[in-house]
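Can you make up a protein sequence with its backbone structure tokens?

===
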Amino acid sequence: MLNEKALLEFVEPYYIDKDIMHNMWHIELVRKMIHKILSACSYKVDEECLILAAYFHGFIYREEAKIKQWLISQNYDDKRISKTIKIAWESQRSEVPETIEGKILHDAHVLEGGKTYLIVKTLITGSVRGQSLPDTLTYMERNVLNKNKCYLPETIPLCEEMNKFTNDFFKELSEGIR
């Protein structure tokens, strides 16, 4: 059974020094989108492993061993630990996730905050990194535009709408300042 208090105590230190678009608020936005996706579909999922993976996805690439140790300390068996780790990694990879939970987490991460959020996140992250607006737009052009993809039939139209909005916004902003 998921112990949310213990989970938060474990993960919060890993997010404390992240920028404002990748901290614990980001995890809550992803979690909120997970629930929206789950309410719009009828997939049979392991929601506990999915939620754990959502919290771990932001530092799985650096601290997989510590995550496993924490899961062991919380009495998760090897099968649940492996599944949670797999889901967390699947949200990070460019390949199509294998598990339904991985697809949900991936798509929730892409769609967090709705169709306008991708622009806001990119602009704020660029500012936090000390980039000028033209530099951020160059980054956006190379790394954001048309790079987002969702895998679930329920999320693909939302992603297409977000990408169209982002492209239109980028075009208008670029024409105005370049």
